[in-house]
Design a protein that fits this description.
Blueprint: H1 3-22, E1 28-32, H2 36-43, H3 47-68, E2 72-79, H4 87-107, E3 111-115, H5 123-135, E4 143-150, H6 152-169, H7 174-180, H8 183-187, E5 200-203, E6 222-225, H9 235-247
Parallel strand pairs: 1-2, 1-5, 2-4, 3-4, 5-6
């Protein structure tokens, strides 16, 4: 065991104790799982190997979240922009993602929900994700949103379409709907409707942007950008994110 590992052990335990005794824990954490391909390149491995290593990290992070008392975690695994990748690369990535989600479902600890445009995914991938989610419907543990085929702009457009369709089904005219339209109507038709908005959004790999992740829901979120690539994301990195959150004065736009 290296010196760094020996030093990090006590530091990690102290962080955990401090958060348990004094820290405010976010109810909902959004995570942008970034850096799998760059991790693979730096390691001299294939992109697929990087994605597999990233998939292996997911259950570990969910376990940390559950242990900390978090209620909801949203994992951004595939964006709508990613759907335009080379077909062979996309097929390989979707296979890894579907296998990872099926493994989470088989674990039996968490309730899964797919957030994203299922109609934009290949039929087989959409069916596999739907079946995995259905198997967890009776679970009462941590609620895990699997964002696959997800884009923030697409979600807002879908919410508006859903609102318009619901009004039309009630016989309302466009003019009537426009007259009463409010921000609450958007919130009621988002993929995450009924859930608390994310208190904290974590992005790995050193990139400091949201790239459209939970655009509507993150209006008052706190953000934490971690330099580690997703496969290298450690428990101590997770605890540092929680500590940073607990030390901030949340103003909620005021």
């Amino acid at each position: 065991m290296g010196l760094r590992s020996l030093l990090y052990g006590p530091y990690e335990r102290q962080l955990a104790r401090t958060l348990r005794d004094e820290g405010e824990i976010p109810r909902h954490i959004g995570v942008i799982l970034d850096g799998n391909r760059r991790w693979a390149k730096a390691s001299g491995e294939s992109a697929a190997h990087g994605h597999r290593r990233g998939a292996d990290k997911i259950s570990e992070v969910l376990g940390w979240s559950e242990e900390a008392g978090v209620e909801v975690v949203t994992l951004w695994m595939l964006s709508t922009d990613n759907l335009g990748r080379d077909a062979a690369e996309l097929d390989a990535l979707l296979e890894i993602i579907c296998s990872a989600v099926e493994t989470l479902a088989d674990d039996g600890r968490w309730r899964l929900q797919h957030v994203g445009a299922a109609d934009l995914l290949p039929a087989d991938a959409s069916a596999r994700l739907g079946a995995a989610v259905a198997r967890t419907s009776g679970n009462t543990g941590l609620h895990v949103n699997i964002a696959v085929g997800y884009g923030g702009r697409h979600e807002i457009a879908d919410a508006v379409r859903s609102f318009l369709r619901s009004g039309a089904s009630e016989g309302k005219s466009v003019e009537e709907m426009a007259e009463t339209f409010s921000v609450e109507h958007i919130a009621e038709h988002l993929y995450t409707k009924g859930q608390p908005d994310p208190d904290l959004v974590i992005r790995t790999s050193g990139e400091q942007r949201l790239s459209g992740f939970l655009m509507w829901q993150s209006a008052h979120s706190e953000f934490y950008f971690c330099d580690a690539y997703w496969p290298d994301f450690r428990h101590v990195d997770f605890l540092r994110a929680l500590r940073a959150f607990s030390q901030r004065e949340r103003r909620h736009g005021r």
